[in-house]
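Researcher: Sequence of HIT-type domain-containing protein follows. Predict its structure.
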Amino acid sequence: MQCQVCYENKNSSYKCPKCHIKYCSVTCFQKHKSSELCVENNIQIKPIVEVPITQTQLPIELGDNEECDHLSTDILERIGQSNEVLELLKNRHLRTMIKSLDCSLYPADDMQKAMVEPIFVQFVDQLLAIVENKDKQ
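Model: Prediction complete. Tokens:
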């Protein structure tokens, strides 16, 4: 399995004791360990049944120039059919980050923290490419 820190070494035989991502070397482990996301991924999330998300999640403040923050069904289907997106979602660390963001009490702050992780930036760039490509047509 590929190292989920450097994404270069395909022989990653070590696993983080906190969030269980795979890494290939001491250098990658130290880089990952210093990341704030490693600790955040260890947070236990209460099921929605116990604490409804509408009672705990704070609204995200959008800028004045944000006219629409919803995606059409067509764009959502293109994202779901994208081989690049599906390949990125095979990464367990990325899936854990997305789940944490989805249930976050402070999504804007946590999104900024997630943007320091290369795999998350790659995922967001791929989504934006699909959305922007649709807007140009």
